[in-house]
Design a protein that fits this description.
Elements lengths: L2 H23 L23 E4 L2 E4 L26 H19 L7 H8 L17 E2 L5 E2 L7 E6 L2 E6 L12 E3 L1
Antiparallel strand pairs: 1-2, 3-4, 5-6, 6-7
């Protein structure tokens, strides 16, 4: 696919995803989605409160009072990269392709095992992940997407791997997932 065609496809997919999200969150009868919790300090003098089973809680609540919110997702972890989400996936795919060219097949295993193989834990100790790729690895050794969520690697064959990002909602197998293979 040419670069212009790929860009057009990415824009189309992004637009469709935005429409689906907008339609689902603004349809009649849909419950309003709560705003994600934030650590940002308020600049006005009004109190920031929310109701939950533990009563009224201020934004500066202690960790014990925040236990009632345990089921909520924290805000996305900041990832220090300016590389667009789909480019991150393509860079991960490129690293796997380069590994396969050297070793005759894809690295296999869990995300941390594949990441370790791509970062030099391989017979020739070659690091296939370049600093300019924007690819990030967490403390557990898992390669992350643009939202700080571990990527999902699905081996389709010895030479084809599907790479899935959970997308902005940070949940795999939903409409906003990004996929390359």
């Amino acid at each position: 696919m040419t670069k212009n065609r790929l860009t057009a496809v990415l824009l189309l997919v992004t637009g469709v995803a935005a429409l689906v999200y907008f339609a689902s969150s603004h349809s009649p009868g849909a419950a309003p989605k709560p705003a994600p919790p934030t650590d940002a300090k308020r600049t006005d003098n009004s109190s920031a409160t929310s109701n939950n089973s533990a009563g009224s809680v201020t934004a500066n609540s202690s960790p014990e009072n925040l236990a009632a919110k345990a089921g909520e997702l924290p805000p996305p972890a900041p990832v220090a990269t300016n590389v667009p989400p789909m480019i991150l996936l393509q860079n991960a795919r490129r690293a796997i392709i380069q590994y396969a060219q050297v070793y005759g097949g894809n690295p296999v295993g869990t995300n941390p095992e594949i990441t370790a193989a791509l970062m030099g834990k391989n017979p020739k100790q070659i690091n296939f992940i370049t600093p300019d790729s924007g690819l990030q690895v967490n403390a557990q050794g898992a390669m992350l997407d643009a939202w700080g969520t571990p990527l999902f690697f699905h081996q389709l064959s010895g030479h084809d791997t599907e790479i899935r990002s959970a997308g902005e909602d940070r949940t795999l197998w939903t409409m906003d997932d990004l996929i390359v293979h």
